[in-house]
Every structure is written in C-alpha cells, then in structure tokens.
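Hi support team,

I've been running sequence recovery on a batch of backbones for a student project. Most finish fine, but this one hangs at about 90% for roughly twenty minutes before it completes. I'm not sure whether the input is malformed or the queue is just slow. I've pasted the structure tokens below so you can try to reproduce it. Let me know if you need the job ID as well.

Thanks,
M.K.
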C-alpha cells in the first residue's frame, strides 16, 4: 500500500502486476513508507477494514484506491515462471520440473500444494467476497493509461521502469481443453472482471 495524499489515492499492489516498478515510480510522492513495508500486498478488503478510516483522517477526504489487473491465465503463468527461478530450487514453492498444465491442475486442487498457492485477483480487487471494490482498476496490458492518470493526478510527469521481472518464458502455453474448461469455470468471476477492465483499459467503480 502507498498513500498518495496530494492525489487522494491509495495504491494496492496486486502481486505479479509490476508492483515493484510502480512502487519505485510512486515512492517519492508517497507518505506511507512504513505501512508499505509492513503490508506490501494489502488487498481491498483489508484496506477498507483496517486502514481506510485512518487514511481518510490523514488526507482530509475519503481515499480512492487503484490497482492493476492482469489477464488471469497470463497472471497465473507469471507466478509459474517466477517460481522457477534458481533461488527457489529445492523449496516447496518451486515449480522446477513441473509443467504449466501441472501447475494449473495443482492450483485447482483442494488443498493446493505450496507451489500452487496463489491468490485470486478478483478477491484482491474486492470483486469476490463482499468488497468493497477498488475504485480504479488498470489493465496490465495498457499501463500507459495508469501512468497518464497518475501523472495528471499528481501533476508531475511519471515514467514506469522495470523491477523484479520473472524469468523469461514467453506466453502461457495452451492447456488441454478439459483443463482450460475447469480453469474458466473456477475463475469465472476473475475472467469476467478482466474482460470489463480490458474493454476500457481503466475500469472505475462507483
């Protein structure tokens, strides 16, 4: 979480959506370094329950939240590639020796093995489990929309760099049709939410 008091905004860092690069871009304009370190990936529900009132008092108005969303299967593939890095070899979270299809199978299992235990974007963004939803959701594939929005609200030109990039692995490989159908059924609300975000590049919740 980063509080941008001047803009009346709070950034909620959805994992695997360039969050470290966004934090680095916004850190000079933020007033919440300590909270950010303690809660680097706070979701919408936790922010609303534990911090929204405090932030409102601090900045003198109800804050708007913003976050980035990634195409759901691509988001899952990014997690898969990230957990293939050498530093995780031999760790329960490692995906070495596991195919992407096996990773998705494990993600859909109950319980999930440690290497496949990742969060859902629809839940993170407040669109699953009662909300409240994030005010501004930007499409990962059109980050220029977010940078332009923030530059306007902060009244400074911003440039987004690159940080903490997953090992190169290209696009998510095709999944067997039955597995893809199971993934779509299990992640239907996430897929539907991304379709709305992707249609405009910037989805605003009122």
């Amino acid at each position: 979480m980063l509080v941008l008091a001047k803009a009346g905004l709070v950034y909620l860092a959805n994992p695997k959506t360039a969050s470290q690069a966004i934090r680095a871009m916004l850190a000079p304009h933020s007033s919440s370094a300590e909270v950010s370190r303690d809660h680097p990936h706070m979701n919408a529900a936790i922010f609303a329950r534990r911090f929204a009132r405090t932030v409102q008092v601090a900045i003198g108005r109800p804050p708007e939240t913003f976050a980035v969303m990634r195409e759901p299967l691509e988001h899952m593939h990014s997690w898969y590639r990230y957990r293939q890095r050498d530093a995780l070899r031999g760790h329960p979270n490692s995906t070495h020796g596991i195919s992407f299809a096996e990773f998705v199978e494990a993600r859909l299992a109950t319980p999930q093995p440690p290497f496949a235990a990742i969060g859902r974007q629809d839940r993170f963004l407040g669109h699953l489990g009662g909300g409240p939803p994030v005010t501004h959701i930007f499409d990962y594939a059109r980050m220029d929309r977010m940078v332009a929005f923030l530059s306007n609200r902060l009244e400074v030109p911003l440039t987004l760099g690159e940080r903490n990039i997953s090992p190169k692995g290209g696009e998510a490989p095709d999944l067997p049709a039955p597995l893809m159908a199971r993934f779509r059924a299990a992640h239907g609300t996430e897929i539907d939410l991304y379709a709305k975000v992707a249609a405009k590049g910037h989805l605003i919740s009122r």
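--
Follow-up from support: It reproduced on our side and the slowdown came from queue contention, not your input. Residues 143 and 162 are 12 Å apart (CA to CA). No action needed from you.
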